[in-house]
Amino acid sequence: MERQQYFNNLQRKLLTRAMWGWTALLSEIETLDIPSQFDIFPEAYAWCAAGTYQHSIDNEAATLYPDDAPPDVQPVTCFGDGNFLFRAFSIIFFGNQDHHTEFRIRAVCKLAKNEKSYLNNDFLHSLTGAKNVVESLLPSSVFVNAKDSSASYQREVLRTLKPFTFANMWHMFSLANVLGCTVQSVYPYVQNPGTNRSLVNIFIF
What we know:
Structural class: mainly alpha
Strand order of the largest sheet: 1-2
Distance between the termini: 33 Å
Number of strands: 2
Order of helices and strands: HHHHHHHHHHHEHE
Low-confidence stretches: none
Radius of gyration: 17 Å
Oligomer: single chain
Strand content: under 5%
Number of helices: 12
């Protein structure tokens, strides 16, 4: 089975389980064992060695590129259909946008299996160096019920299992963990009263 077909089929399977709620989805994810043939890094190394990376600069995004961002990189075009965070990771690791479903599935599975960690400020501090991340960032990332952050978190994970749904910083956190590498989130200087830039323009370790 081809890589893309495997993850497309898996997404459909998980969406069916998610119709029965969080517990059903989590039970399915707990038994999931992604075949080693679909490990990310061997294929990523192969295309890097082949030098097949070809993308055009996103000129509009370049006008928003902040001066505290890495000077040796530039924003590239990415299809904005709600999958663009996962398309961006696909570009980085595979040289094209075709594997966005895989990154969505990997992120959602990581979040579902590790809810307690991703709602723990000490754990998030170890990833970002920031304090009180849950209280400061979660409300701007998801619709939060102040009495039950767990329910808000679960609802958001279920929502973002669907294709064409926008991701948030928790997906960045999980993908950094999935990939085992440092991820830098670059956020422009824009007026957004609901977002603390110091919590989204960060390194995630």
